[in-house]
Amino acid sequence: MNSTLRLSTFFCVLFLAISCNKSVDANQETILKGKATLLVDATLMPVMEDQVQIFESRYDATIGINAQSETEVIQSLVKDTSSIAVLSRKLNADEMKIFANRKIIPKITPIALDAVALITNSNSNDTLVDIKAVIDFMNGKPSPKIKGLVFDNANSSTVRYMNKLAGLTTIPQKGVFSFGTNNEVIKFVSQNEGMIGVVGLNWLTQPKPEMQAYVDKVVALSLKGHNQNDFFAPDQNNIAEGKYALAREIYIVNCQGFSGLGMGFASFVAGDIGQRIILKSGLLPYKVPPRKLSIRNQINNDKK
């Protein structure tokens, strides 16, 4: 009787162990399955929403998007709040050292070229601006063309980008303003002539339905860069030809340290489908998808 009881107990334990192992395997994250959080520089939010939506529709994966300023994204990344991020810059030496101490080598995948767009009220008669005039204004020199510069967030990637061009370490106090979001910048500029807003191009090419009326009331300025004689608009063609002065590369930074959704999602965005999504968004894909042409030896005319 005791032998029978021990045997039954053994099989029960074995059954439970197998069931637990199956449960763990079912919930284990892979490159195409599981759950993860994607930290996104807020200036790049619209196109990444599209990427996540299509990725989730094709695979058994759930990716939550956490849009923050660039500074907040970096802080969350190094604190291991999330291990996948979309940024407009690579990690610097100090940030790389943090991950090296954790025995992790971040995988950085270039996915697109974006433009920092300068926008003004559509009632403005002047849609041209010299980058020198913008930089001079940031350094305290008045400009008859610029009443003020408006950024989305004091900690955003656009502030860092423009500060670097102007040789500044902090956002100027005079004539430069920051709100909370790119949409707030667009709204403000649409209602105030003479102000120049600084936003990610994607917020103009893919506005939410409720923002379309405001986007229609602003115009992206054509820019003359250093050592340029002509002005160029922030569009895909000018970005591709290196003519638009405020272009920047976009990266997916994967610090998971294992073959998880970070690897799968980065590969998807850098692949054919992801690059076509970027092309449709108005940004420039890092690798322009090839066009497939169907050549027929004979054309059938079905019309009678």
From TrEMBL:
Pfam families (UniProt xref): PBP_like_2 (PF12849)
Keywords recorded for this protein, A-Z: Signal
InterPro entries for this protein: PBP_domain, Phosphate_ABC_transporter
Domain of life: Bacteria
SUPFAM superfamilies cross-referenced by the UniProt entry: Periplasmic binding protein-like II
Domain PBP: 36-271
Family matches, as Gene3D superfamilies: Periplasmic binding protein-like II
Protein name per its UniProtKB record: Phosphate ABC transporter substrate-binding protein
UniProt organism field: Flavobacterium ammoniigenes
Phylogenetic lineage: Bacteria, Pseudomonadati, Bacteroidota, Flavobacteriia, Flavobacteriales
